[in-house]
Amino acid sequence: MIGPLANDKIDLLGPVHALGNPWDAVTLLQGIKDKVGSNVQIFYNHLNTGRPFKAGDKFTSRYIDVLNTPLYPFGYGLSYTTFSYSPLRLNTQTLGWNNTLQVSVKVTNTGTRKGTDVVQLYIHELVRSISPPVRELKGFQRVTLEAGASKRITFQLTKHDLSFYKNDMSFGAEPGKFEVFVGGNPDSLREATFTLNK
Fold first, then answer.
1. Is 28 domain-assigned?
2. What is the number of alpha carbons within 13 Å of residue 88 lying toward its C-beta?
3. Lowest-confidence range among 56-65, 97-106, 114-123, 143-152?
4. For residue 118, which of 185, 173, 57, 180 has the smallest C-alpha distance?
5. 3-state SS string over 109-159?
6. Which of 1, 39, 53, 73 is most buried (most C-beta within 10 Å)?
């Protein structure tokens, strides 16, 4: 008696999967994706918008109720000490096509305890055939320093580090002006410029 009654009830509701209608889950997830996925993605190597955020500017890209930035920047980490970075030193302002650029910075532990920081190097090409990201991570080095100690960190860049995939899917660099950034995270960087010549 229970069997036929249960089947009648199921028939009244329509065909039901033991775990519910599997398409309901897909529909739910699609709805969530549509609502959440429509937000602006924030990641360190995004393309520049036509209206980058500028405080006080009426015509800018921004949220109304929250900051434009993520809670913590890419590469951010906590430490029991603090670090400072000297201005960048480049071995040349003009990088030859087959030469190497050396970018160095002096890192100082300004706190009272031994600590470790990750020194990050980013580049940005000002003009190229495909829109460049605002920053591209090209190197990083981990450094551990005693309180008050300093160390000079050096990175090397070649045209290969400045290369990218073009419209025809060839990989190569383009001559032009570059910005180079070094620091502990993308919100706290030292900056210099150089030119790549062919």
1. no
2. 25
3. 56-65
4. 185
5. ECCCCCEEEEEEEEEEECCCCCCCECCEEEEEEEEEECCCCEEEEEEEECC
6. 73
User: 40-43: which pairs have CB atoms within 8 A and are 24 or more residues apart?
Assistant: 42/68, 42/69, 42/70, 43/74
Residue 28: its pLDDT value, please?
43
pLDDT tens-place string over residues 20-31: 554 444 444 444
Are 103 and 139 in contact, with CB atoms under 8 Å apart?
A: no
The CATH number of the domain where 110 resides is what?
2.60.40.10
Asked if residue 105 is part of any domain, the answer here is yes
Task: Count how many domains the chain has.
Answer: 1
H helices within the chain, ranges in order? 2-13, 22-36
pLDDT band for position 12 (cuts 50, 70, 90): very low
Alpha-carbon span 80 to 15, nearest angstrom: 60
